[in-house]
Amino acid sequence: MTVAEVESAFQPLRGRYVWGARVGREELLSFEVGEPTLEIDETVGRDGTRRRVVAPRGRWRLALVDCRFELAFEGETDATDEHGAGTIERAAQRLSGQALTLVRARGDELRLDFDLGATLRVWRHPQSEAGAVLWELSSPEGAHLFRS
């Protein structure tokens, strides 16, 4: 993706609130943006019992996959990809509720600024394989993958 394509992909998210920020199994950090909808996953066991898992999802979801990142508040680093899950989770909770105000893309670096002082910087991990997905921005219309 070019710088213009990255900034265009994030344009509909500007002014919208981040929520559901969390540390995931498959990703370093993810969060939802925009109006929530319910995602319902129903399964039927071998014995015929039904089970439903209901999860709120935003219109957009940003997942950091194979990258370096820094999450700062008021200019002070709160968590990086090198911190443990607990530290990242606490920082993610501070990010929830903030509105995206500015998106900047330069080369392999993405910077997101938020209205209550949070800044998220994302860049290529030096050990990432060529073509690795750094981050993914998904919506019902499709996914934007940014590769190294």
Care to describe what's here?
By secondary structure, the chain is mostly beta strands. The chain has one domain (3-147). The protein has helices spanning 3-10, 85-95; strands at residues 18-22, 29-33, 37-44, 50-57, 60-64, 67-73, 76-80, 100-106, 109-114, 118-124, 133-139, 142-147. The strands form 3 sheets. Strands 1-2-5-11-12 form a 5-stranded antiparallel β-sheet, covered by helices on one side.
Largest sheet: 5 strands, antiparallel
Overall mean confidence score, pLDDT: 91
How many separate helices? 2
Tell the overall outline: globular
Q: Which regions are unreliable across 5 or more consecutive residues at pLDDT < 50?
A: none
As a percent range, the share of helical residues equals: 10-25%
Strand-and-helix sequence, N→C?
HEEEEEEEHEEEEE
Strand order of the largest sheet: 1-2-5-11-12
Q: What proportion of the residues form beta strands (DSSP E)?
A: over 45%
The tally of structural domains comes to 1
List keywords for this structure.
148 residues, mainly beta, 5-stranded antiparallel β-sheet, globular
